[in-house]
Amino acid sequence: SDLLGISSGRGCAIGEIGMAAIDLKRPSFILCQYSDSQTYQKTLAKLSIYQPTEVLIPDTLEASHNDLFLTLTNYFKETKIVSVKRQYFNSAQGLEAMRNLCNADYSHVDLVILNKYYALCAAAALVMYVEHKHRANFMPHTLKVAYESVEGSVIIDLETARRLELVTSENSIMDQNKYTLFGLMNNTVTVSGHRRLRMEILQPYSSRHIIEKRLDKVQYLVENEDKLGSLQNIDDLFQLKEVLISVPMWVLKINEYLKPDKIKNIKHAKRTRFSRSEALNIRNYCPTLKICFKLEDQRYNTIKEKIAQVLHEDSKPARGFQAAELNRCFCIKQEVNGLLDAARVTYSKLLDNMQDLIGSYSEQCGLEMSLCLTSDLGFHVKFVLGKRQDPITFQLPAIFTNVKRRGNVYHASTIETFSYNARISRVVQEIQLITNALGLKPSASWCIYVGCVYNLCEVVSELDVISSLAIVSCQKDYVRPIFSSDLIISAGRHPILDKFDSNPIPNNTYASRDKNFNIITGPNMAGKSVYVLQVALLQLMAQVGSYVPAASAELRVTDHIFVRKGLIDSLECNASSFVCELKEIMYTIENIKESSLLILDEICTGVKSDEGTAVAWAISESFLKRPAFTFITTHYHFLTNLEKIYPNVTNYQMEAVESTEEGIRFGPLVYTYRLIDGVTQISNYGIRLLLQTALPESIKMDAVKFSEQLLQR
C-alpha cells in the first residue's frame, strides 16, 4: 500500500533527488531530499526500505529514457512505475498541500521542508495521485508530515543489503526471511513494530548518542525479563489513525459500512490501551524507557469521552456476517437520533415477524427451524435433519427454494422470506446512512487530537522493537557492545550461524586507525567470506541497538557499509562481472568516508590472474590510504606483500590442516574455520577440493596432470 513519488533535478541540479512517500493504510507523509550518484545507489536503497507498490515519476523521465527511469525499471521489475505529467510536480502546490495536511503537533517540519524544492514537487504529484487515482482525501491538519534526512543513519546500498542478506535470502526459497538478519532479530508482535524493525536494519542509526539510549532500554529489559513478557502483549494501534484522518469519497454510498466499524475499532482499542498501560505500569517499572509522558496526554480521555457519547458501552468489533450486521445496526446509543431509533424499531419488528414465520414453517414440517443471516441468502430458514432422517430420501416442501445443503444442515428460502429480505434491506440501508452520518460527526471533531494518536502509535512501535531486540539479546553469550575509535571483537560469532548451528566457531577481529587494512587468505571453503560478512553483520546489530554474539565487542560507529564481491554480472545493466565490479568500486571510492566499513570479497577474479592481481593491488592501495576499516579476502597471494610496504596492513589466514598421510600429494584439507595470523602456506587447494567432488575420475586425473605440468613451467 506504499506509494512513492520521485522528482529529480535537471541541468546544474542533476543528481539531486526529492522523494515523498505515504502508506494509505497507516497514513503519514515522509519527505526527503539528497544528492545521489550516477548509479542512484541511495535512491535504490530508499526504495528497498519503503517497498512501494507504485512509484510516480515525471513523464519526461520516461519519454527521454532517463538514467533514473532505466535504473528503477531494471531493479524493481515488480513495482508499478507510473508516469505523471510534469506540471503536477509543482513545489508551490506541494508546500501548500503539506501545510494544509500537517497536524499542529508536527508543524515545525515546515521550517525544514520550505526550501526542499524537489521533495515538495514529489509531494504535490503524490497528493494529486492519491486523491484522483485512489479516491482518498484527508481531513485538514490530520497527517504526520516528517522530513527524513540521510544524515544520522548508516547508508547501505541495495547490493550490500542483498549480499549481507539483511531482509531477504536467496538461499531459502520457501521462507526468504528465515536465514536473514531480519529473520533472526524479528520478534515483533505488531505490524508497526515489524515495519520499523525492518527499516532500522536497512538503515541503522549512525549517532552514538541514539544507539546508547536504545541499548540502555534493551539492557533494562534484558535484566528484567518479567517486564519483557508483558510488553509482548502490546496492541497494534495503527488502526486508530485511519478513521480520524481519512475521508474516502465513497463514504456516503448506501452500502458502505466502513465508518461504524472503524469507530468501534477505535473504541475497543482505546479501552484496551487504557487497561494495557495500567497493567504494564510503565512509569513504575520502566523509567529508562522514558515514554510515559506520551501516555499521559489528556487528549486520550477526550477522545474516549466523545466516543462514549455516541457508541454503546458494549459495542465492539464482531466476527461473522450476522453478528457484524446486528452490531452495525445497534452500535449507536438510543435517543441520539430520532430517525435512527424509529428505523431500528421497524427493523426489530420485521425480525420478530420473520421469527414467527419460521415458527410456522417448523410446525408445518415437523422440524426444528431457526432464522439465519448470510451474505448470499440474506435472512432465511436453517434446520438440521435428525439422526433418524435420511438426507438422500428427505423431501422438502415445495414452498422452499434456493436450497443449500452442507451435510445434515439445510439453508433455504421462501417467497415470504424474499419479501421480508427486501423490506429489511431498505431499512438496513437507512440505518447505515444515519449511522455513517453520526459516525462522521465525532471523527471530524477529533482531528485536532490526531497528534496524540501518532504519538501513541510511535510508542507502540518503539516498545515492540525494543522488546524484540531484548529477546535476541537475552540469548546465551550475547554481550552489549561498547563504542570507541577501534574495532575489537573477542570470540565473535556469525549471528545467523549462531542461531542455526549448534557449535559455531568464534573468531577475534581487530582494526584501528593504525591497523585498518586486513587481508585474509586461505583455501576455498575455509570460511573467509563468512568471516568478513560476520564483521559487517555484528556492526549492524550493534548500531540497531542490539546485543551481539561475542565474548566482548568494542566497535567504531560507522556511517556507510560497503560489501563488494567479484564474479557478479548484471544482465540488467548489460555488463560483465568485471565491468560491474569496477562500477561498484568507482562508487565506493567516490563515497567512502573516514568511519566507513568496507568488505572486499575476492575482487578482480573475472580477468586473467596477473591482470586481476595488478588491478586488485591498485584498488587496495587506494583504500588502505584512507582511514576506513577494510577487510579483503583474496586468492592473490601477491597482495599480502602490501604488509611489507604499508604499516597499517595486516595479513590473516583462515586455518586449514593438510592431510598427513604419506604418498598423497593432494590430500584433503581439514578446515578449522579459525582466523590466525600470517599468510596461508597451503597450495593447490583448488585441486584438493576438486578431488573431493563426484566428478568423473578421468577429469580429476587430467586436472592433476595438467597442474603438475604448469607448475614445472
Low-confidence stretches: 246-260, 269-288
CATH architecture of the largest domain: 3-Layer(aba) Sandwich
- What fraction, in percent, of the residue positions are helical? 40-55%
Radius of gyration, rounded? 33 Å
Tell me what portion of residues adopts beta-strand conformation.
15-25%
Based on helices, strands and strand pairing, what is the structural class?
alpha/beta
Number of helices: 27
Looking at the structure, what is the overall shape?
Answer: elongated
Number of strands: 25
CATH level 3 topology of the largest domain: Rossmann fold
Question: Spatial order of the strands in the main sheet?
Answer: 8-21-22-23-18-24-25
How many angstroms separate the termini?
64 Å
Indicate how many domains the architecture comprises: 4
Name the assembly state.
Answer: single chain
CATH class group of the largest domain: Alpha Beta
| CATH homologous superfamily label of the largest domain | P-loop containing nucleotide triphosphate hydrolases
Mean pLDDT: 83
Please outline the major beta sheet: 7 strands, mixed
GO cellular component, one term: nucleus
Family: Belongs to the DNA mismatch repair MutS family.
Domain DNA mismatch repair proteins mutS family: 515-708
Domain DNA mismatch repair protein MutS core: 176-500
